Fold:
Amino acid sequence: MTTSPRKCTRSTGAGLSIGMAALQIVIAAAPAFAGEIFGSIRAEGKAVGKGLKVEIAAPSKLYGTETDNYGSYRIYVPEKGKCSLTVHYRQQKVSIPVYSYERSTRYDFSLDRKDSVYVLKRK
Structure:
């Protein structure tokens, strides 16, 4: 048995249509990830756990979230440039400069104690 050329053309056309639709979905979803800052925070050798308040102060707006069970955070910051990331830990506000870019950027930190003050260090 041989396959008719007409059937081949139809299935190739259908595959091309599906491929183009998938490409349009990927392109439309790409801006949703632009400017994302994410990472994890550890203290005393382990993840800080759920509910730690994390804020990013951009030039014109403050963005915030809380860490998940693993000490991870994820914040979408549409503004580009230098920002300040602040963590609220044990009645202290600890800050460090970060940068927001067009693409996602990962910042992993450790909270280190110096005397009675905590300091954020990038890992």
Q: What stands out?
A: The longest strand covers residues 81-89. Confidence is low (pLDDT under 50) at residues 26-33. Strands lie at 36-43, 46-47, 53-57, 62-66, 72-76, 81-89, 92-100, 105-106, 109-114, 117-122.
